Amino acid sequence: MATTLDISRGIQTCLSLIHASDLAREQRDDICSPPLNVSDTESLTRMAMAAASMLSERAQGYIDVLNDMHANTEEARLDA
């Protein structure tokens, strides 16, 4: 669970930085430059996408295990 929390918070931080950078570029304000350059923004976007994909695959794996455990418990209960 700690890994899930760390990854989800990391994704949230990446997306916040990406959003702030995109807004700053849209506003074209010389005083408030974007926190990230375009290249870093693209890199963090790809990393956040990969992390979200990995997180969902891992969650699906846990769900599958829990579903199998539940099915086996139900079968054992019916056989008794």
Reconstruct the topology from this structure:
Layout: H1 2-27, H2 38-79
Helix pairs in contact: 1-2
Essential attributes:
single chain; 80 residues; mainly alpha; 2 helices; 0% strand; rod-shaped
Describe this structure in words.
By secondary structure, this protein is an all-alpha fold. It has one domain (2-79). It contains two helices and no strands. Helix 1 packs antiparallel against helix 2. The longest helix has 42 residues, at 38-79. It is rod-shaped. The protein starts with a helix and ends with a helix. The model has no long low-confidence stretch (mean pLDDT 90).
Oligomer: single chain
Strand content: under 5%
Whole-Å distance between the termini? Answer: 34 Å
Shape: rod-shaped
Topology order in helix (H) and strand (E) letters: HH
Number of domains: 1
Mean pLDDT: 90
Q: Quickly give the structural class.
A: mainly alpha
Provide the gyration radius in Å: 21 Å
Q: How many DSSP E strands?
A: 0
- Binned, the helix content reads over 70%
Stretches with pLDDT under 50, minimum 5 residues? none
Number of helices: 2
Describe the main β-sheet briefly.
none
Short note summarizing the structure:
The protein is mainly alpha-helical.
